[in-house]
Amino acid sequence: MGVTTKRPSARERLLDAADRLFYAEGVHTVGIDRLIEEAGVAKGSLFYNFSGKDDLVAAYLAGRDERRRARIARHTEGLTDPVEKLLAIFDALHEAVTSPGWNGCAFANASAEAAPDSVEAVAQRTYRVWFSDLLLELATEAGYADPAGVAGRLRLIYDGAVASSRIDAHPAAALVAKDLARLVLEAAPRT
Amino acid sequence: MGVTTKRPSARERLLDAADRLFYAEGVHTVGIDRLIEEAGVAKGSLFYNFSGKDDLVAAYLAGRDERRRARIARHTEGLTDPVEKLLAIFDALHEAVTSPGWNGCAFANASAEAAPDSVEAVAQRTYRVWFSDLLLELATEAGYADPAGVAGRLRLIYDGAVASSRIDAHPAAALVAKDLARLVLEAAPRT
DNA sequence: GCTCCTTTAGACAGGTCTGTCTATCGATGC
DNA sequence: GCATCGATAGACAGACCTGTCTAAAGGAGC
């Protein structure tokens, strides 16, 4: 008998469907019924594995968070120069925006119309703190006179590329962003 | 008898409530009942003046569009140098992000989880085309060797400031954006 | 064999949402 | 005076949405 792959668990199929549907169409647009039908799962399995829709949304965003960090890590590992690492973050972004189905930042989309204390907003803040810290650490390590200022400018450029590429449905913004980042990194004074 | 202001029409009160509630809490979060209660209007008046919620959403976004264009016009009028006009756009942005209740781009928020052919997405595209054309015209007028490139960079910076200021709930991004815009405008070659 | 964990199908409840309809009322204009 | 237009209150329909519950079955490990 050939190599047979065991059917994933209901939990895994749910997370997979959530990742696809929530990202492509929005966490509030996609209802439970759509979700379980796409996942091929009974409704009871959803509430057995998760406490509710919010819990599933949180798990979906946590997965996005983890994979985004992993993507950045993959692009920066092996590099020693912190300036190179900062630029590599934009390579990771370029990979993301050119991947099929790109639809902008999952956190931004989900929390665009969510309450400030919602799971969506909390997930966005969690990611945001990590990302801001990463930029600040690298800018400090690189010896810039104003590391917080450099990090802030790079973050603005990063945000701009994410927004632009989604609005215009065109991935070129990531390349523009890397050029701008290089310009900023070269223009900023170092100690 | 003193100066009495006549009570605005149901239509005006609806548009006013829509502008406040839709912008602050989201077009899909706020339902009709919330809206008519806040406006002090009967439900019948909503459907008398508008064909439905979508129509009201479209009117809300059209109003935002008009006021944003007016704000930019107010900041650029009187200026002759196209480079100054480009920089003045970021002054208009600064005014917007520092105004009370700032909650990011109304179009971006509304269309973050909306279908591509929804009234939200259409309104966003309409505004986007106008804004892109404006930047391109000014960059061309300024005599840059690559006006489309300059316009694209400025647009990315603008988008970044809008996104950053919302995510971090901090208006400083607009100032950072203007500095970056100046850097771009000074670094770009002119014919 | 037996138990426990997971899954299934589907009915059901309770809430919310958009939109319709009726009946009435005030103001305005002719 | 009368017709028309805008507005009002509220009941109602129909769709959709989250979440619960029941009864049964599959599968893995002991």
UniProtKB/TrEMBL annotation, chains A, B:
<feature type="domain" description="HTH tetR-type">
    <location>
        <begin position="8"/>
        <end position="68"/>
    </location>
</feature>
<keyword id="KW-0804">Transcription</keyword>
<dbReference type="InterPro" id="IPR001647">
    <property type="entry name" value="HTH_TetR"/>
</dbReference>
<dbReference type="Pfam" id="PF00440">
    <property type="entry name" value="TetR_N"/>
</dbReference>
<protein>
    <submittedName>
        <fullName>TetR/AcrR family transcriptional regulator</fullName>
    </submittedName>
</protein>
<keyword id="KW-0805">Transcription regulation</keyword>
<dbReference type="InterPro" id="IPR036271">
    <property type="entry name" value="Tet_transcr_reg_TetR-rel_C_sf"/>
</dbReference>
<dbReference type="InterPro" id="IPR009057">
    <property type="entry name" value="Homeodomain-like_sf"/>
</dbReference>
<keyword id="KW-0238">DNA-binding</keyword>
<feature type="DNA-binding region" description="H-T-H motif">
    <location>
        <begin position="31"/>
        <end position="50"/>
    </location>
</feature>
